Amino acid sequence: MKVLSFTTWIAENRESSPIKRPLRKLEDLSINRKYKGTRYESELFPRFRRLKVRIQQMEKMPNLADWFNLMQNSDAEFYTLVQTDELGQPDVRELFRDLTNRRAAKMKKYNL
Protein backbone atom coordinates (compact mmCIF):
# COMPACT_ATOMS: atom_id res chain seq x y z
CA MET A 1 0.00 0.00 0.00
CA LYS A 2 1.31 3.43 -0.96
CA VAL A 3 0.69 6.35 1.40
CA LEU A 4 0.43 9.77 -0.22
CA SER A 5 0.68 13.19 1.36
CA PHE A 6 -2.53 15.17 1.18
CA THR A 7 -1.16 17.65 -1.36
CA THR A 8 0.05 14.82 -3.59
CA TRP A 9 -3.32 13.14 -3.38
CA ILE A 10 -5.10 16.38 -4.32
CA ALA A 11 -2.74 16.97 -7.24
CA GLU A 12 -3.26 13.45 -8.57
CA ASN A 13 -7.02 13.71 -8.29
CA ARG A 14 -7.69 17.03 -9.96
CA GLU A 15 -10.08 16.96 -12.89
CA SER A 16 -7.26 17.67 -15.32
CA SER A 17 -5.37 14.63 -14.07
CA PRO A 18 -5.69 11.45 -16.13
CA ILE A 19 -6.37 9.65 -12.85
CA LYS A 20 -10.04 10.10 -11.99
CA ARG A 21 -11.09 9.54 -8.45
CA PRO A 22 -13.49 6.64 -8.03
CA LEU A 23 -17.05 7.61 -7.17
CA ARG A 24 -19.35 5.54 -5.02
CA LYS A 25 -23.03 5.00 -5.58
CA LEU A 26 -25.52 5.87 -2.89
CA GLU A 27 -26.61 2.23 -2.78
CA ASP A 28 -23.05 1.29 -1.77
CA LEU A 29 -23.29 3.26 1.46
CA SER A 30 -24.36 1.69 4.73
CA ILE A 31 -28.11 1.59 5.34
CA ASN A 32 -27.45 2.67 8.94
CA ARG A 33 -27.13 6.22 10.19
CA LYS A 34 -23.65 7.28 11.17
CA TYR A 35 -24.72 10.62 12.63
CA LYS A 36 -27.31 9.59 15.18
CA GLY A 37 -29.31 11.77 17.53
CA THR A 38 -28.12 15.35 17.65
CA ARG A 39 -24.83 14.56 15.90
CA TYR A 40 -26.49 15.32 12.55
CA GLU A 41 -27.59 18.78 13.72
CA SER A 42 -24.41 19.63 15.57
CA GLU A 43 -21.72 18.01 13.40
CA LEU A 44 -22.73 16.92 9.91
CA PHE A 45 -25.17 19.59 8.74
CA PRO A 46 -23.01 22.57 9.80
CA ARG A 47 -20.08 21.13 7.80
CA PHE A 48 -22.06 21.22 4.56
CA ARG A 49 -24.41 24.13 5.05
CA ARG A 50 -22.24 26.13 2.64
CA LEU A 51 -23.34 23.83 -0.21
CA LYS A 52 -26.87 25.24 -0.09
CA VAL A 53 -25.72 28.32 -2.01
CA ARG A 54 -24.22 26.16 -4.77
CA ILE A 55 -27.48 24.23 -5.13
CA GLN A 56 -29.47 27.47 -5.39
CA GLN A 57 -27.20 28.67 -8.21
CA MET A 58 -28.01 25.67 -10.38
CA GLU A 59 -30.43 26.13 -13.26
CA LYS A 60 -32.26 22.91 -12.46
CA MET A 61 -32.68 21.23 -9.10
CA PRO A 62 -30.63 18.01 -9.14
CA ASN A 63 -32.09 14.69 -8.08
CA LEU A 64 -30.47 12.80 -5.22
CA ALA A 65 -28.22 10.61 -7.39
CA ASP A 66 -26.97 13.55 -9.47
CA TRP A 67 -26.36 15.64 -6.36
CA PHE A 68 -24.46 12.78 -4.69
CA ASN A 69 -22.12 12.46 -7.70
CA LEU A 70 -21.74 16.20 -8.03
CA MET A 71 -20.73 16.57 -4.40
CA GLN A 72 -18.23 13.74 -4.63
CA ASN A 73 -16.67 15.39 -7.68
CA SER A 74 -16.64 18.95 -6.41
CA ASP A 75 -16.23 18.86 -2.64
CA ALA A 76 -13.13 17.23 -1.13
CA GLU A 77 -14.60 17.00 2.38
CA PHE A 78 -17.78 15.31 1.16
CA TYR A 79 -15.75 12.95 -1.02
CA THR A 80 -13.54 11.99 1.91
CA LEU A 81 -16.51 11.21 4.16
CA VAL A 82 -18.09 9.07 1.44
CA GLN A 83 -14.90 7.14 0.70
CA THR A 84 -14.14 6.47 4.37
CA ASP A 85 -17.68 5.22 5.11
CA GLU A 86 -18.31 8.12 7.49
CA LEU A 87 -21.70 8.72 5.87
CA GLY A 88 -24.63 6.35 5.69
CA GLN A 89 -27.50 6.45 3.19
CA PRO A 90 -29.87 8.06 5.72
CA ASP A 91 -27.35 10.81 6.48
CA VAL A 92 -26.89 11.66 2.79
CA ARG A 93 -30.63 11.63 2.11
CA GLU A 94 -31.35 13.93 5.06
CA LEU A 95 -28.53 16.26 4.08
CA PHE A 96 -29.93 16.44 0.53
CA ARG A 97 -33.42 17.23 1.83
CA ASP A 98 -32.16 19.94 4.17
CA LEU A 99 -29.99 21.60 1.51
CA THR A 100 -32.78 21.59 -1.09
CA ASN A 101 -35.43 23.11 1.21
CA ARG A 102 -37.22 19.82 1.85
CA ARG A 103 -36.18 19.94 5.47
CA ALA A 104 -37.18 17.46 8.11
CA ALA A 105 -39.28 18.89 10.94
CA LYS A 106 -36.40 18.97 13.42
CA MET A 107 -34.32 21.12 11.07
CA LYS A 108 -37.03 23.71 10.32
CA LYS A 109 -36.08 25.57 13.48
CA TYR A 110 -32.80 26.61 11.83
CA ASN A 111 -32.76 29.67 9.63
CA LEU A 112 -31.00 28.30 6.58
Summary tags:
about 110 residues; mainly alpha; about 45% helix
Describe it.
The protein has 112 residues and is mostly helical. 47% of the residues lie in helices and 0% in strands. The longest helix is centred in the middle third of the chain and has 11 residues, at 64-74. The protein has a domain at 30-107.
Question: Radius of gyration, rounded?
Answer: 15 Å
SSE run:
HHHHHH
Contiguous runs where pLDDT drops below 50 for at least 5 residues: none
Largest sheet: none
Q: Per the principal axes of the C-alpha atoms, what is the gross shape?
A: globular
Report the mean per-residue pLDDT as an integer: 82
State the helical fraction: 40-55%
User: What is the structural class?
Assistant: mainly alpha
What's a quick, concise take on this entry?
By secondary structure, this protein is mainly alpha-helical. Helices cover 47% and strands 0% of the residues.
Q: How are the secondary structure elements laid out?
A:
Blueprint: H1 6-12, H2 39-48, H3 51-56, H4 64-74, H5 76-83, H6 89-99
